[in-house]
Q: What sequence folds into this?
């Protein structure tokens, strides 16, 4: 085989590979568009595991208990209809 024939064969092989690559890239593009929405990456907050939810719940329970305790010590009791004095009678 002479050098000219080897170069021509390699060019033919290159053209065949270029066509194959183009077909595969097109398949990849269409596969990405046909993917269902549920498999796309979610945006926003990540979901929490059960342990993480329990830890947050316990932390918030302590927080609100502390707030309630501080409010009870500093805030006056709001007047409700049961706590209001009777209206003056003329």
A:
């Amino acid at each position: 085989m002479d050098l000219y024939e080897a170069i021509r064969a390699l060019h033919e092989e290159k053209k065949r590979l270029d066509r194959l690559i183009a077909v595969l890239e097109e398949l990849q593009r269409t596969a990405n568009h046909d993917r269902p929405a549920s498999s796309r990456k979610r945006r926003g907050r990540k979901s929490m595991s059960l342990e993480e939810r329990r830890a947050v719940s316990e932390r918030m329970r302590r927080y609100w208990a502390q707030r309630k305790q501080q409010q009870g010590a500093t805030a006056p009791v709001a007047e409700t209809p049961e706590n209001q004095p009777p209206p003056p009678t003329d």
In short: The two ends are 127 Å apart (CA to CA). The longest helix spans residues 3-34.
